[in-house]
């Protein structure tokens, strides 16, 4: 089993670690979690994870090094592990928004193989949509990272120049879909349901819509056509939403998030 060090044990880092052991990708003892203050990680220690507040020491025995810190923390981390990463023995996986493979190699050395991965917070329940990309990694390493993230959801390999777009559509996208569910539940309250019932109904309806597309392998419009009839209530509601800019606002929000994601990291 590979030895994995996850630098930055926030939501994404911890969720990945727990997902890997839940799906028996590796044992908890094969994963080292780092954080500047590990005193509040007693629960992770009980689960069997190794803990460290020294990033340089933590990467020495790792086969895979996962960078999961905030963009503004990255330069300090790279300075700490510079010289400790062995190019032909270790693979670096970055889940940091707006940071290219070249940015990381610039700090760690051109020979280091780097793969970018962009999961979302549904990683916590094994339902992430993760995009991966690299400009120099070997095929076997891409396959290994694909297997790694398939333990916590679905994986798509894309060109690296689309990773910022993937951040907006998949990582930020979780918030967009959650907001639409929230809006649907508020609409439910407006038409007479209690808040908890309206939320449950909106959540299950959204889940059903997503599962319908995944299982039927169909296009949204073909499924929409099945529930719209001439002069019916569904088409009336859809048209009212479109008249008020629903699709346009959604698209513009994704585009703006992509623009902002591209500027998060400053060398």
TrEMBL record:
GO terms for cellular component: cytoplasm. Residues 160-262 form the Pyrroline-5-carboxylate reductase dimerisation domain. Residues 3-97 form the Pyrroline-5-carboxylate reductase catalytic N-terminal domain. SUPFAM superfamilies: 6-phosphogluconate dehydrogenase C-terminal domain-like, NAD(P)-binding Rossmann-fold domains. Keywords: Amino-acid biosynthesis, Cytoplasm, NADP, Oxidoreductase, Proline biosynthesis. The keyword Amino-acid biosynthesis applies. Pathway: Amino-acid biosynthesis; L-proline biosynthesis; L-proline from L-glutamate 5-semialdehyde: step 1/1. One of its GO terms (molecular function) is pyrroline-5-carboxylate reductase activity. It catalyses: L-proline + NADP(+) = (S)-1-pyrroline-5-carboxylate + NADPH + 2 H(+); L-proline + NAD(+) = (S)-1-pyrroline-5-carboxylate + NADH + 2 H(+). It is found in: Cytoplasm. InterPro entries: 6-PGluconate_DH-like_C_sf (IPR008927), NAD(P)-bd_dom_sf (IPR036291), P5C_Rdtase_cat_N (IPR028939), P5CR_dimer (IPR029036), Pyrroline-COOH_reductase (IPR000304). The keyword Cell inner membrane does not apply. Its EC number is 1.5.1.2. Pfam families: F420_oxidored, P5CR_dimer. NADP(+) binds at residues 68-71. NADPH binds at residue 55. GO terms for biological process: L-proline biosynthetic process. Catalyzes the reduction of 1-pyrroline-5-carboxylate (PCA) to L-proline. NCBIfam families: proC. Belongs to the pyrroline-5-carboxylate reductase family. This is Pyrroline-5-carboxylate reductase. It comes from Sphingobacterium sp. (strain 21).
């Amino acid at each position: 089993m590979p030895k994995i060090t996850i630098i930055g044990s926030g939501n994404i880092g911890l969720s990945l670690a727990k997902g890997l052991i839940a799906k028996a990708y590796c044992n908890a003892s094969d994963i080292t979690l780092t954080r500047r203050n590990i005193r509040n990680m007693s629960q992770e220690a009980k689960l069997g994870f190794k803990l460290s507040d020294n990033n340089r020491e933590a990467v020495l025995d790792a086969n895979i090094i996962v960078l999961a810190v905030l963009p503004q923390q990255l330069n300090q981390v790279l300075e700490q592990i510079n010289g400790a990463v062995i190019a032909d023995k270790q693979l670096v996986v970055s889940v940091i928004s707006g940071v290219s493979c070249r940015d990381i190699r610039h700090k760690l050395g051109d020979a280091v193989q780097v793969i970018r991965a962009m999961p979302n917070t549904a990683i916590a329940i094994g339902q992430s949509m993760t995009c991966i990309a690299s400009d120099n990694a070997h095929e076997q390493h891409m396959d290994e990272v694909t297997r790694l993230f398939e333990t916590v959801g679905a994986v798509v390999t894309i060109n690296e120049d689309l990773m910022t777009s993937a951040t907006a559509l998949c990582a930020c996208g979780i918030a967009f879909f959650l907001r639409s569910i929230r809006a649907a539940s508020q609409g439910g309250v407006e038409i007479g349901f209690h808040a908890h019932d309206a939320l449950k109904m909106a959540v299950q309806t959204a889940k059903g819509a997503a599962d319908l597309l995944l299982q039927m392998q169909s296009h949204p419009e073909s499924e929409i056509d099945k529930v719209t009839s001439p002069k019916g209530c569904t088409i009336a509601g859809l048209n009212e939403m479109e008249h008020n800019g629903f699709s346009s606002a959604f698209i513009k929000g994704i585009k703006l998030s992509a623009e902002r994601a591209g500027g998060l990291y400053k060398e």
